[in-house]
Amino acid sequence: MALPAHLALEIVTPDRALVHDEVDEVQVPGTEGYFGVLPGHTPLLSMLQVGQLWYRKGVEKFYLSVAFGLAEVLPDRVVILAQVAERADEIDVDRAQAARQRAEQRLASPQRDLDLERARVSLMKALTRLNVATRARTRG
Amino acid sequence: MPSLIDIRRRIRAVRSIQQITKAMKMVAAANLRRSQERILNARPMARQITRVLGDLAARVDPSAHPLLARRPEAEIRRVLMVVMTADKGMCGSFNANIIRAAANHILAHPGIEVTLGLVGRRGRDFFRRRDYPTRFELVNFTRKPGYEHAAAIAREAIAAFTAGEADTVLLAYNEFKSVLQQRIVIAPLLPIPKAQFDHADAAAAVDYLYEPSAQAIFDQLLPRYVEFEVFAALLESAAAQNAAQMVAMDNATKNSGDVIDSLTLTMNKVRQAAITREIIEVVSGAQAL
Asked: Any idea what DSSP says for residue B2?
């Protein structure tokens, strides 16, 4: 069977269909680690973690931050069902900055009955957002 | 007979009310368009998540999951009903209908102990005044529901269901059928009706690699699915609310137009009467001379 030339990438969140495009390569933050997908990938179903996702179209790379959800990979198609997903240019850097400080403070001064897990997750979200946003900036 | 000045004053008052209702109608129309868009935007997610779950259900043991565990009909004693109303009135019978449907549902099942989850201020105020047992309340967001609200509701529902405090969780909300029509839906949220995934054809399904495992993905996806169902219901309810408000305000604008017309008529009559009276006075005064 000939390998498909492109991947049909679909990224959907509860609010919207964020991306619907033909791309050449995708990298996805799976729970077991980041993995790259090229056309012709074997079918795969993976949970997502908080992290950075990028896809390449020709020579251009696009960065997104995603948090939780599911990736379905087929030889010619990638479907991402994310709870949260944002394009690099949509990220509010100031908000992410503030969220990061808040989370860091919480983690630095652990009080009782503080939800450590939640603080950790929000720190990760903030860091990912900042990371993705910086990428968009340095590139552009 | 009211005096000319009184009538003029009333016409002015009605006219400013009309301006307000007209503005509210415009706002509701704009909101309606936005909330309809949001429903459409949520569709792709709905399609994908059901498809993936159907696929998974074919290869894991779906009966094992607590959120799918159906309890025998006879043993259903306690029900959590999530009632979605609006935060504000000014939308015709929207709130009254849903509240009445929920209350009737409670009355129709006397053996069953119903606890309420109240979404929207209108419903909360109504049921709180009447001392219904309530598990949670969520207010001040119904016009623009976010996913985090849905997640909070789903969390409560799942907690109640898995702890055995509720044998079934029902969602009661207004479904947006068209601008003129809202349909009240009382549908089970938990246990997840299994028919939702059954359509998947096991033979057509692809052999996936699973990361971490099919069962783990299935288990994690089900709560997401519940959240998503709640989210969809919130969006429907918001759209229905905006539609109801638009229609109500349109009616109000028309009614105030009618009131202005009839007041203007009365005013003219009064004025005519006054003029006639004055003429009579002048004429009879002249004759007396």
From this structure: -
Strands A60-74 and A44-48: antiparallel
B38, B42, B210: residue with CB nearest A45: B210
β-strand A60-74 against B181-190: which pairing, if any? unpaired
> pLDDT-derived band of residue B281, with 50, 70 and 90 as boundaries?
very high
The CATH architecture annotation of domain B25-245 reads 3-Layer(aba) Sandwich (3.40)
- Give pLDDT, residue B55: 80
pTM for this model (two decimals): 0.84
Same domain, A21 and A66: yes
A contact test, residue of B35, B48, B51 with most A CBs within 10 A:
B48
CB < 8 Å to A81, chain B: 45, 48-49, 52
CA distance, residue A138 to nearest chain B CA (Å): 31
pLDDT for B81: 93
Query: Which range marks the domain in which residue A103 is found?
Result: 92-139
What radius of gyration do chain A's Cα atoms show? 16
Q: Are residues A115 and A55 in the same domain?
A: no
Instruction: Say which of A16, A30, A44 has its CB closest to residue B208.
Output: A44
Instruction: Average the pLDDT over each of A45-59, B1-15, B66-80 and give the range with the smallest value.
Output: B66-80
Q: Do A22 and A60 lie in a common domain?
A: yes
Q: How far is A1 from chain B (nearest CA, A)?
A: 16
End-to-end CA distance of chain A: 39
Query: Which residues lie closer than 8 Å to B187 by C-beta, 6 or more apart?
Result: B170, B171
Residues A43, A74, single domain; the answer is yes
Residue A140 has a pLDDT of 46
